[in-house]
UniProtKB/TrEMBL annotation:
Domain of life: Eukaryota
Organism the protein comes from: Aphanomyces astaci
Molecular functions (GO terms): ATP binding; ligase activity
Assigned keywords, A-Z: ATP-binding, Ligase, Nucleotide-binding
Name this polypeptide is given: Uncharacterized protein
PANTHER family according to UniProt: ATP-GRASP ENZYME FSQD (PTHR43585:SF2), FUMIPYRROLE BIOSYNTHESIS PROTEIN C (PTHR43585)
InterPro entries: ATP-dep_AA_Ligase (IPR052032)
Keyword Nucleotide-binding: yes
The keyword Ligase belongs to this UniProt entry's keyword annotation: yes
Length: 147
């Protein structure tokens, strides 16, 4: 289990976060939450970047949880597809490209246009979301053109 709660947040959220105590552990955060004296029935994530933290907190609080072991597969489309494939289920063909700028996106478009049959569809999507994971693009064979 990851010790620092801060590292559960995406880099974009860490940069913008008002909470700068990166050394605080999930256990110490749980202690602070419990110190308020309320019975805790669960935790709800407020936005996608907090999923990993919410999963770890729910485990530590002993409330209903999705569990932190599957956090990456629930958040990251590439990991999700590979997890499905490893489970023996049908999964889309996919390729992960990291740190694309405009030049790389144009190269990706050329690659798709030159190597992929016109009858095969392709989708280009961020792996998590454009705000929290800029630079990670996933090619999924599902739509006929790159926009």
């Amino acid at each position: 289990r990851l010790q620092g709660w801060f590292e559960h947040l995406s880099p974009a959220v860490r940069r913008s976060s008002a909470f700068r105590d990166a050394g605080m552990t999930v256990d110490s955060l749980v202690s602070i939450v419990r110190s308020f004296g309320f019975a805790i029935a669960g935790d709800l994530v407020g936005a996608e970047p907090g999923v990993r933290l919410a999963d770890s907190l729910s485990e530590a609080l002993g409330v209903r949880t999705n569990g932190s072991a599957g956090s990456a597969a629930r958040r990251n489309k590439f990991v999700m597809g590979e997890t499905i494939r490893k489970a023996g289920l049908r999964a889309v063909k996919q390729t992960l490209k990291v740190t694309p700028g405009l030049r790389e996106i144009k190269a990706m478009q050329s690659y798709v246009e030159s190597r992929v049959e016109s009858t095969v569809a392709v989708v280009v999507t961020p792996t998590i979301d454009a705000f929290t994971s800029p630079g990670c693009i996933l090619l999924v064979h599902a739509d006929s053109r790159v926009l």
